[in-house]
Amino acid sequence: MQRANYYKVEPELITYLIEQEALIKQKVENTFGVTIWELLKLRASQLNQCAYCLAMHSKQALEYGESINRIIALSAWQDAPLYNDKERAALALCEKLTLSQHIDDDFYLTLEKLFDQPSLVTLTVAINAINSWNRIVKMFKPTVDFNER
């Protein structure tokens, strides 16, 4: 079924989200790095079962230099020895926020040991952004493209 083209129907709203992505990219480049950002996008998209975003962000992660093995292992990141402490903390935060789980003080203190306050705010907004995109895409179901670029 053909659903509404969200960009054509409400370009002002979608442009705002696109501009937010550009600002987040600028912030992550100066804080925790683009590859962690792409891992967060992929993990949230896995949890939200958003095929469109998985296709898009797998390609982007590869373009930013992420390895295919780390992308493949992402759904089992807790058991895979491929991620550092900072990445693990960011992925745990991604899961907690995506699944609406409680962020207790102990976990927050763990995050504070690895990320400064601007990075924590950026992480949170970045996770919120991909969750927003996942929900928009799941609603309007644009064509998924898993073809290589």
Tell me the number of strands: 0
Average pLDDT level: 95
Unreliable stretches (pLDDT < 50, length at least 5) are none
For the termini, the CA-CA separation is: 26 Å
Structural class, please?
mainly alpha
Largest sheet: none
Order of helices and strands: HHHHHHHH
Q: Into which percentage range does the β-strand content fall?
A: under 5%
The portion of residues assigned to helices is: 55-70%
Q: Tell me the number of helical segments per DSSP (H or I, 4 or more residues long).
A: 8
Q: What's the alpha carbon Rg, rounded to whole Å? A: 15 Å
Form type:
globular
Could you please describe the fold and organization of this structure?
It contains eight helices and no strands. The chain is 69% helix and 0% strand. The chain is globular, with a radius of gyration of 15 Å. By secondary structure, it is an all-alpha fold. The longest helix is centred in the C-terminal third of the chain and has 24 residues, at 117-140. The mean pLDDT is 95.
Topology:
Layout: H1 6-9, H2 11-29, H3 34-47, H4 51-63, H5 68-72, H6 85-98, H7 105-114, H8 117-140
Helix pairs in contact: 2-8, 3-4, 3-6, 3-8, 6-8
